[in-house]
Amino acid sequence: MVFLEKGQLDVLDGSFVLVDAEGVRVHVPVGGVCCILLEPGIRVSHAAVTLAARSGTLLVWVGEAGVRLYAAGQPGGARSDKLLWQASLALDDKARLNVVRKMFELRFAGDVPGGRSVEQLRGMEGARVRAMYKQMASFYRVPWSGRRYDPKDYMSGDVPNQCLSAATSCLYGISEAAILAAGYAPAIGFLHTGKPRSFVYDIADLIKFETVVPAAFGIAARKPADPERETRLACRDMFRKKRVLKRIIPLIEEVLSAGGKALPDPAPEAAGPAFEEEGGHGDDGHRG
Questions:
Q1: Average pLDDT, stretch 235-256?
Q2: Does CATH place domain 80-257 in 3.40.50.1110?
């Protein structure tokens, strides 16, 4: 995957090329890139979109460092083997429970009681998350009366809640970009279900309390004049510094592998990458 900003994405000699305001060209190898994340300041030519469609390269329009996901081109380098694997795990009660338990292990340092259903684990999650918010607020010395906001207006509530809403929105953006780039479906969740971004919520929760929640409380402690903007900028810088996007895809593979079902082999008639590179390194996003 590669982030591009401030320039025009075009095609030259059969390859993507980024042209900046000074006319400087930077080539982007077609065979080695499965997803191009387009940050603010990018214009995309018709030829570039055509090449992306031919090569199975996913184009994703995002905010700076992925703090928002505005739109995606053809849905993923989406691969049938990945989608079928994800769906089979979600539809199998035992496999789904195994995936949810793995998510809990990662989130709560391995403390997962046995003999609990998904619904029971969901109830326990709520109590633990409330305790973690309270602990984080105490650490940053931020007044805290609970996670309260109007679902129809995510920037409602007091300053800490506004910061948390803005930070969580940023994390959802970069998580959805990673899910699409890896060839999975954002709607097929395990702990969360029934919403277009259920799997996004599942994956974002795995790293929420070590990434955006501390950033949100840190901003709230400064009593900002514009909580949404300052939190978004803080998340942008943190995503770049900690390379959050690069970390999310291995997490997806780790939790799904806990389901106990092997990833199916691609069908014999499946289409491979449109452009092969010797020693290529663009596997997960290419259509199959």
A1: 92
A2: no
